Amino acid sequence: MSQPTPTQSIPLTDAKRWRAYWVCVAVAGLTILDLTKVNVALPSIESAFGATSTELQLIVSGYVLAFGLTLVPAGRIGDQRSRRALFVIGLSLFTVTSLACALAPTGEFLLVARLLQGVAAGIQMPQVLGLIQQLFQGAERGKAFGLFGATIGIATAFGPTLGGLAIAIGGPEDGWRGIFWMNVPLSLAAIALALWLLPDTRTRSSRPLELDPVGLLLFAVTIVSLMWPFLFTTGSPDDNPARWWLLVVFVIAATGFVAWERHYAASGRHPLVPLSLFGVSSYRNGTVLASAYFAAAPSMFLLTTLYLQHGLGLAPVFAGMVSIGFALTSAVSSWIGGNLVNRLGRPLVVVGLATVLVGIGLLVLAALLTPPEITAWAMAGAMVIAGFGGGLVISPNQTLALADIPVKQGGLAGSVGQLGQRIGTAVGTAVTLSLFYATIYRETGTADSGDLGVYHDAYGLGMLAVAMFIAIAFAVGLLDLGARRRQKRSLA
User: Fold this and answer.
1) At residue 190, what are phi and psi to the nearest 5 degrees?
2) Element (H, E) at 416
3) What is the pTM of this model?
4) Where are the alpha helices (DSSP H) in 182-237?
5) Rounded-to-5 percentages of helix, strand, coil across the chain
């Protein structure tokens, strides 16, 4: 049985390790920003190109789909070869595709560039997680993932604000181009820093890459057939119900993928996704919990932005600013959680999820019960509470999920976890948006309404789904907490 190329130790001083770490985390933040900041630009893109609703949907969802498809194979290549090289390749492609998006002459060109940008994001993100796994151990790893979680929380929450700001500066016609232009100088600086500061993480090897081509094909069919019907769910009566038949393809492909991966591993080779990863309960529970959380959090931001823009008539930049409090408090609590996770463990995440649920309840109450002139301020206050809870979820859960995973599989394990988050985002967005818009269609017969009461109903129903996703994550957290306590008693 062939062995993967061994992981080198990284003999770096503390200062050099943290400099390398900050390069990785900054690029991860840049990647996540593009998941959220483009949402507020869709009306401008529609105006510029006369894009159809399907094209607009693909500009957002195509990025998510390409991102998810690339994560696992890119993580596998990084684990077998050089994470540093894959990081620079992904970042270089991200720079080029961001430039192409900014200069796009047509909607079709923008769509293709956006798909390739998702591929670039999927190449670089697994290398970030693999490098963090390899650079830090023990309590330091908790601290590192705490800062990573803070960065991801800030990027997720600040995305709509940055997108709205770019439109405010550049104007309604071409302001959306600034959303992509800002990536170019930042990415070029990151490439230079990566070449200078990131360490080599692999020995040279003459062994060919083991990519499991059959597994890769079955994996692609599985992911596309799962995500596609959700990515194209808008809540409009025009949604094609035939898309749900793809879930039958998903079940068949997923069954074939699992069977093939088991056969491939039994033959002495290294499968695309080692199913043994899911035999590690801490990793399995952490991945499911994160997937449910990411089904809720981006949907919460999107629904709130839609409510503020369409229901209350706020400009995109001001609607986006409501989430700033979430970003700031999640950054603080991520730092706190990263330092406490090794001492407190899973209860920290459970408390964080309960706090997020309180914040969601306050958001809905603010929308439904406060006078319109103070609603945005009240919702901003609720976001502060939800953000503090969210920071206690993302980074501590990441640390706990990867704690028992061998470092040599860190990139792959991290990329599978990221894939779960992208799938969660696709499913959560589809469910909540369809509830939001279906309510508007049902009550008014159109996609828009001047009646604030209609938006109250739509927002309340959509946020109920958000709360249910958080409740699922909370239940998984409790199950994991119970399993850990039973394991501890059995070892005593």
Assistant:
1) -65, -35
2) helix 410-444
3) 0.82
4) 183-197, 213-231
5) 85, 0, 15
